[in-house]
């Protein structure tokens, strides 16, 4: 799940929204839930509710495929995404592309005009999240990307 569509809002009723759309979420979070429920159930709380949907299942080193998949996703689900973006309580949405960093080289990541036009026309921002290469993660003994939860906006 390296390209995600995320929708969020402080007053968003995610359950009601999900009962009115056919897209299946991979992530649902609610305002007031603990940020780290397993390790700090009484710690900081989420300030927004939100939903995440897979826009591309391409891996972190397949940025070109992620972009093609995202274009296809936006085209085929434009009506549903418009409905979601117009839903009461939705404050914003973004396509988040998760890609691998390339150590020691300049990293330029181009978004095609078609993708920008489609996303912008639906009111979506585009985010690029850079992850360390898998080899680097293994050295640091961190979990692999596939076991990581998608980014959850905490709100302001």
Can you give keywords for this protein?
5 helices, single chain, about 160 residues, globular, 5-stranded mixed β-sheet, alpha+beta
Short overview:
The chain is of the alpha+beta class.
Characterization of this structure:
- The protein has one domain.
- The chain contains five helices and five strands.
- The protein has helices at residues 14-18, 63-76, 78-85, 113-121, 134-140, and strands at residues 3-9, 27-29, 49-56, 92-100, 125-131.
- The model is unreliable at 142-150 (pLDDT under 50).
What is the beta-strand fraction? 15-25%
Number of domains: 1
Number of helices: 5
Helicity level:
25-40%
For the sheet with most strands, the description reads:
5 strands, mixed
Shape: globular
Poorly predicted runs are 142-150
Topology:
Elements: E1 3-9, H1 14-18, E2 27-29, E3 49-56, H2 63-76, H3 78-85, E4 92-100, H4 113-121, E5 125-131, H5 134-140
Parallel strand pairs: 4-5
Antiparallel strand pairs: 1-3, 1-4, 2-3
Helix pairs in contact: 2-4
